[in-house]
Every structure is written in structure tokens, then in C-alpha cells.
Amino acid sequence: MEIVRRVHNMKETARKAREKGRKIGFVPTMGYLHEGHLSLVRRVKEVSDLVVVSVFVNPAQFGPTEDFDRYPRDLTQDADLCVTEGVDYLFAPEGDEIYPRGSCTFVEVSDFSSMLEGVSRPGHFRGVSTVVLKLLEIVKPHVAAFGQKDAQQTIVIRRMVRDLMLDVEVLVLPIVRDKDGVALSSRNVNLTEEERRAARAIPTALREAEKRVADGERDPQAVIGTAREILETEAILRIDYVSLVDMETLLSVEEVAGEMLLAIAVRAGATRLIDNTILRV
Description:
The chain has two domains: about 1-175, Rossmann fold; about 185-275, Pantoate-beta-alanine ligase, C-terminal domain (Pantoate--beta-alanine Ligase, Chain: A,domain 2), CATH 3.30.1300.10. Helices cover about 40% and strands about 20% of the residues. The protein is built from ten helices and nine strands. It has helices at about 5-20, 35-45, 75-85, 95-100, 115-120, 125-140, 150-165, 195-200, 200-215, 220-230; strands at about 1-5, 25-30, 50-55, 90, 145, 170-175, 235-245, 260-270, 270-280. The protein has a six-stranded parallel sheet with strand order 1-4-3-2-5-6, with helices on both faces. It has a three-stranded antiparallel sheet with strand order 7-8-9, with helices on one face. The mean pLDDT is about 95.
């Protein structure tokens, strides 16, 4: 495996691969890789000739009071995992490679960037869509994989790819969970033992809401209430939102019907956790 640090080197590598007719698969990450990331790598390997993983903690998607400085980083560990998984290139640029001095161009998927996470994290999805577009332009993948845990992010990226007519296939793969049901996240390392125990209420809340719908509940507020009640049993958790929205529009649903996203965001101490499930009726 080769570690690439410069944008022009990564571009040249991608150009040569495409000239040889090789299919490029791409997994963009912010590093501190875990089994969720590796599941994306394995899927991309199945459909590609050459696999690129990027590690870049994107400052543009963090607000001024968020955890950019606390976000876990370990490039050596990431590289070792990538070698084990048979990754061909690890693209790990410095900040000034992605945002050269004087950068002032950003991309925003307007309607979807101001909902759910966008309410709590203004500007977050502008940073996400901008960096993803840059990475797609640098790596030039035929296929790129993202995780369902960041459901709104995947919807934003798919819409950006469609609207800008980008020549890349976007794969969205299922959430990978730990033995206790908590969704894998790089931020989980920041949880104390007490916070981690409390976090188990999140997947429990999702499961109980799923069961309520399966049993015939069609009132969105009743479904949301079921999830909130379980989260509220853990005093250490502070609920940001519990929302039931349409998968296409991200607008709150008026009745439980069709394909919906039940999304949860909470804080456990200083750590913000998100999770979701897709409901189909």
C-alpha cells in the first residue's frame, strides 16, 4: 500500500489508473478507522480493481464550539488496518492541500442542509458537500461508499452527485453495531464507561419504535414518543432531536407510511452521538 499526501500525486495516480481501464473504488473517512469503515472497504473491493481510502479530518464541517481538536486521530493505526484489508492507496492530505490559502468556494445542497443535523450544526453540510466534492474530483472514483449511520449525509451526497451530474456511483451500506447494539463511531472512544452504558438506550429506542410500527402504529408522534421515553430513562443523555422524516425529502411525515427515516441525536457528556433506522410501511 502507498500513502499519498499530496493532491497532485493522488490525481496523477487516479489518471493513470483510469487510462489503464482500472475501476477505482473509494472510501472517504475522517480516520480512526473501525469495523464500520472496514465494511465499506470490503464492499468496495468486491466491485473495484483499485481501492483508495482517504483520511482527512475536515475542519469545514466542524462548528467553532465542536470537537475538531478532540476528534480522535491515529494515522499509523489507520494505515495498518488499510494494509490488512488490501487497500491500494491511503490518501492522507494536510489541511492546506484540501483548502489552499485563500480558498473561498463552497458547495451547498440547500434544501437538505438546514434540516435535522443542519439545525443543530449550521454550516456542517456545506463543509461535508464541499470536501466530498473535492475528494471525488481528486480521486476520480467510479464508485464511492458511505455508511448509513450518517443517513442525512448520504442523502445530501447522493443529491449533490445527481444535481451536479457527477460520474460516480454512490453506495450506502448498513450500520455496523458493537455487541451492545451501539452504532460504531470514531467518537465512541471519548465516552466514559457511564456514558457508554447510557448510550445503549439509543439502539433500544430505535428497536422499540420499529416494533411499535410493526404492531400497526400509524401516528408519527406516538412512534417518536416511544423512542423519546426510552432515551429519557437515561438522565445522562441530553436529547437533541428524535425525528421521523420522509427518506426523499427529509420533511416530517404526517402519517406513518412509505419509506421513512427515524433519526436520533443525543449528547452523552461532551460527545454527540447519532443513530437511525429506516422504517418501511
